[in-house]
Structure formats: C-alpha cells, structure tokens
Amino acid sequence: MARKLGYLRFFIVCVIASIVATTHAQLQLGFYAKSCPKAEKIVSDFVNEHIHNAPSLAAALIRMHFHDCFVRGCDGSVLLNNTNQQAEKNAPPNLTVRGFDFIERIKSLVEAACPGVVSCADILTLAARDSIVATGGPFWQVPTGRRDGLVSNLSESTRNIPTPFDNFTTLQTKFNNAGLDLNDLVILSGAHTIGVSHCSTISNRLYNFTGKLDEDPALDSEYAQNLKKFKCKSINDNTTLIEMDPGSRKTFDLGYYNQVVKRRGLFTSDSQLLVNSVTNSLVNQLLQGSLRNFHAQFAISMEKMGRINVKTGTQGEIRKQCALVNS
Ligand code: HEM
After folding, report:
1. How many domains are contained in the chain?
2. What's the domain range around 86?
3. Are 153 and 173 in a shared domain?
4. Measured from the CA of 62, which atom of ligand 1 is nearest?
5. Taking 60 as the threshold, does the pLDDT of residue 17 lie above it?
C-alpha cells in the first residue's frame, strides 16, 4: 500500500512538473545555441545573400510577421496552406502579402542542417528582423523558442488583423486584444515608412468615400488630386502600386509620421492616429525626436509583438515544411 502511494505521489509530481515546464517555457535569446547552433546564421546569411536582389521583400516580411502574430500569436499559422478549411493565407489582408517561398527556402536550409528543431515561427521572426536590418533599418532582439501552430483559419485573420478602413476604436481594440497598447500602435504603424500599397486599397478614399463619389475629407485634398491624376487613375485600378512614404519608401525613417501629420497617410487607419489625443501627441513627439529614438522604440515594440501568444515547450510542433502541419 505504502509503495502504491509512493508511486502515485511520484506520478503526481511528474505531471505537475511537466505542466509547470510547459507553462513556464519561455522565449530566450539563442534558444538554438545547443540544438542547432547555425540556425540563426543560416537565416541571416540567406537574407543577406538574397535581399539585395529583392529589397522590397523586407517590407513584405515584416508585414507577414505582423499578420502572423495577430492571429493565434506568432506561431507561423500565416504560412500554412489550406486544408479542409480555408487558411489565413487566403484572407483578404494576406492576399497582398508576399515572401512565402522565401521563408520556405530558408526553412529547407535549416532543416538540412538540423531536422525537426527550428520552428517556422522563429524563422519568420528572424527573417523579418534580418531583412529590415539588411536594408538599413533598425535592429531588434529576437528571442527564440517559438513553436508552430497546428491551425490556420481564414475567418480569424479577417477578424483580428487591422484593416485599412478601421477607425480608432477598432484599431485600439485589435491591438489591445494582441496585448499591445497605443504606444505600440503608433510606433509599429511607423513600418509604413517602407513599402507599397495597392491603389485599390484607397480607392474608396479617393473616389467614393460615402457613396456619393466623394473624397475622404480626412485626406489632404491636394494629395488626393495628385494621386488621382498621376497614380490611381481610376476607381477600378487593382494593380498599380503606390509608395506609402513617397520618395523614401526604402528608408526606415520618420517620413511616415510626416505624411500622417500632413493628412497624407494613405489609409483611414493611418489618419486615425490623429483623432485621439494620446496617439496624436505620440506622433508629434516622434517627429520632434531623433531617428535614433524612433528606431529604439520600434525595436522595443517589435520585440513585444514577437512575443504575442507564442507557443513554447511542448505546445504545437516543429513543422517540417512551413506550409504544412506534420502528418
Ligand atoms: C495599424 C494597423 C495596420 C493596418 C490597418 C495596416 C494595413 C496595411 C495595408 C492595407 C497595406 C497595403 C496592402 C496593399 O494594398 O498592398 C499595408 C502595407 C504594409 N504594412 Fe501595414 N497595416 C497596419 C500595421 C502595420 C504594422 C504593425 C506593420 C509592421 C510592424 C505593418 C507593415 C506594413 C508594411 C511594411 C507594408 C508594405 C508591404 C509591402 O510593401 O509589400 N503594417 N499595411
């Protein structure tokens, strides 16, 4: 009897210990130092070798990372293909996300070095950071140890990823749901200093804001006229790309905030940073401060974003291919 009780006690201790280990597993810098010492270098070497042929991928990858983290946390769910349900990839905000092959190519190199060790979620997070650094943007720390999710669901993306049409309250709610605050909203929106948008994303603001063939009064009318004349020439233009920070879309500078205060931010969501006194004053403080200050704050918010609802320990899995859950 005493021996049985002993076994039972041992069993309970083991169960509790494993629960504690799972829930307390955390991201850490250099998580793969022993299990796959070359992992981070494989990612950065690949990025450094290839990003100069396609520098616009840096913007695409940081956006992909953001879209990943806002849906089920940073668990690589955005990378998964459709199964019996439509995956996140097919949700409207992700239809303009590029770079899936790029991540898959890095994954296959990492798999060749250390099979089944490094998650796609970590590879995406590292590649996003490395590509921004390689194109002259800020560096931020990427603690690793994320594991890959098993589920990817279109409707969750549609619900959780901020849209360009969102008003301030909706943006605040979506960021809060992800554990991010108004400071993060302002700082991370600064990523719109690089990259491009499709004309179709702003055609409502240019051509038919309230259904009366009108412009959005929150958009600088001179700027709107210019866009209509030279860039987005028709309401049906689905293909033309426009810079979000004209003239400096490759430079990770304060240009986006300059655009916003001039009421030239492209999206309603950009314009909403001015309607709230807290975010409005944050934008102005950023413009009065230095580029170095913006980069430092951006680094803090990016690291925070990269921690959203991560799976660690024994949660999820380490996928063999980023587009497929393991069979
Ligand atoms: C605040 C809410 C946000 C909204 C509503 C939003 C929306 C959008 C939209 C609609 C586009 C253009 C899509 C197109 O027409 O091709 C875009 C592009 C982009 N977004 Fe955001 N975004 C937000 C926040 C962020 C954040 C937090 C990041 C990264 C930290 C980010 C990074 C980017 C980048 C780099 C691009 C350019 C992509 C490219 O050139 O391929 N955005 N965003």
Report:
1. 2
2. 39-160
3. no
4. 29
5. no
